[in-house]
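ok so heres the complex, two chains, lmk if somethin looks off
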Amino acid sequence: MQAGTRPGTLFDKVWDQHLVTPETAEVPAVLYIDLHLIHEVTSPQAFAVLERSGLPVRRPDLTLATTDHSVPTTDQPDFRQSSVVLAAARQVSKLRDNCAAFGIRLYDLDDPRQGIVHVIGPELGATQPGKTVVCGDSHTSTHGAFGALAFGIGTTEVGHVLATQCLLQRRPRTMAINTSGRLGAGVSAKDLILAIIGRIGVGGGTGYVLEYRGGAIRSLTMEQRMTVCNMSIEAGARAGMMAPDATTFEYLAGRPLCPEGEQWERSLARWRTLVSDEAAHFDRQVDLDVSALTPMITYGTNPGMVMPIDGTVPMHNGDQALRKALDYMQLNPGEPLLEKPVDVVFVGSCTNGRLSDLREAAAVLRGRRVASGVRMLTVPGSRQVKQAAEAEGLDKVFLEAGAEWRDAGCSMCIAMNGDQVGAGQYAVSTSNRNFEGRQGPGSRTFLASPATAAAAAVTGRVTDPRRLA
Amino acid sequence: MQPVKMIRSKTVVLPFTDVDTDQIIPARFLTTTSREGLGKHAFADWRCDASGQLRSDFILNQPQARGCEVLVAGDNFGCGSSREHAPWALLDYGFRAVISTGIADIFRSNALKNGLLPVEVDQDTHRWLLANPGVEVEIDLQNTRLNYGDHQSTSFPVESFARYCLLEGIDALGYLLGKAADIERFEKDRSCVPG
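and the predicted structre for the whole thing:
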C-alpha cells in the first residue's frame, strides 16, 4: 500500500515500510529488521545453528553486540572467582568468539561504550525513528520511545535474523494509550508506566503494540520515554511506541551512529512523517489523565500488582494468584506499605539506569546517609552513563551516603551475576520485574521509581519521596 | 524437529494465573550455552526448597503428575522474559503442550518453534479442565481440536504456518532462506530511497 492512501497509525507506517513479502492466510509476513542487538545470554544457541548449517550472518553491519546480563559489576577478586561469575565468563567468551567469527561489532567489557543493550543502543544513536529493532530480550520495547518498532524475540528467531535479517510475523493489533495532564512534582515516568500496567493488567497488552500518545507523553524527556516504553512488555505488549518529535531529534543529533549533514536532514524529513494520522484506527483505546497520579509501588509478584505508595494491600477475595503472591511477599491484605522496613535498595537496570535516574536518586541522597542495616546498590546502565555521572560528582553523592557504586550491567535486576537480594529480604528496586525469586531465590521486590528507592534507602523504610523533597 | 500431530496424555494442573518465565526457569540457570538438559531446572524454585530438597506439596512432585505431558495453567501463562529456555526446559521435563485461557506472546512464539503446543481455550473449557485434574485429553493438531472428558471437544487457534511446520516437523528458517531473492530485492529498493 502506498503511504497516504489510507490513514495509518505510527505502527502501520513502520510495519508497512518493512514488508519484504506481505502476510496471507497461509504464511506470515516476512518483516525486514534494521537493527539486531545481541548479548551473551540468548545468542549462543542461535550462533550454533548457523555454525551447524554453514550459514553466514547476512548483515553483520546491522548487528550490534554487548555484554550485560551476566557480567560482574565489581572488580573484587574473590567475587570474580566465584562459580557464578566463572559460568557467566564462559558465556561472555562464547559471544566474543562468535562476534569475531561472524564479523559483528562487540562493545565488550573493556569498551568505554559497553553497557545494558537497551541503554547503549539509543546512546550510540543506533536506535532511530522508523527502524525495526529486535533483540533476544523482552525489554527491547524500550527502543519504541524513538518511534521504532522494537520487540523481544526468542533464540530461534535470533538465528532467523542472523541468517536472513528477517522475521516471520503476523500483524499485531494496536492499542492507543491516550494521556492528558502533567505529572505532579515527585511523580516520575516509572510511576506513570506502573499506573498504566495496573490499569490494563499484566496480560492486557497481549497481542497488541501500544502507542503512548498525548500531552503527558510529549512533555517527557527521551530518558523518561524510554522508561515508559521499556515496561510495555510488563503489560504483555511486545512493543510500545511513541511518535518521534523535536525532543527525539534533539537527543539523536550528533550521536555516533546517526546520519550527518545532508543525510541527517533527509532522515529528519522522513522521521517527521512517523505520526499516527488523525483518522487512524486503533483496535483499542485507553484514556489516562496523569495529573492525579502519585508515586506508585508494587506489593505483589508481578508488575500489575501495584498501588499508590500510600495505599493498602488489597483483599484477595479468593484470587489464588494474589493469595499466593501475598504469601510469598509475607504481606497481609489491608496492610499499608509505607513504613515497611527494607533490607536492600537497587538503583539501575534498563528501566531506570540512565543519567537522569541517577540524578533523581542522588537528589534524595545528597547530604543524607543510607540507613543503618540497608544495602544500597547503584549500577549505571552503561559505562558512558557512569562516566557522565562521575563527571558531575554523583558517584561521590552515592558513596558518601554509604551506597555502593558499581560498573555497568543488568546486575540485581536479573541477579545472574551474583548481585542478589537475599532470601526473605525486602528490596525497593527501580528494575522492571518483581517476580518470585527474580532478584535472587526468596527475594521480595517492591518496584518503584529512583526517588522512591532512594527515599527508602535513607529512612530504611518504604517512604513517599515527596516527604524528603 | 519431530513432527507434532497428536498428543494424548493425562493433564497436570497448575491453577495459578500469570506464571512467568522466571518461574518456568529461573535466570540463574541461563548461563548455559546449550539448549539441552534444562528440564531439571523447570519450576526449580517451586519444585525444590532452599536446600534443594523436593517439596512434597508441589503438584509436579506428586505421583499423579508422573508421565503427564499436558500442563493446564491459569491465564497469561509464560509472561515476562523472552528466554527460549522456558519451552526448552518444559519440553526436556516431559511436557508437550500447555493449555490456558491466555498464553503470552513471546512464550507462544518460542513454544511453537520447538514443538511445545500452546493451546488457548475458552473459559468454560478451562474451568472444566481445572476442576478435573488428571483427566485424559487428546490434542489433535491436524484438526486443531482439543478432545476431553465425556466426548467433549473444542477447537483452538494455531497460526497456520506454525501449524504446518509442526505437522511436517520442519523449521521456518528454511522458508526464510528461500526468500533470499525477495530480501535482496527489498534491500536494493531501499538503498535507492533517499535518507
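quick notes: The longest helix of chain A spans residues 83-102. thats all i got rn
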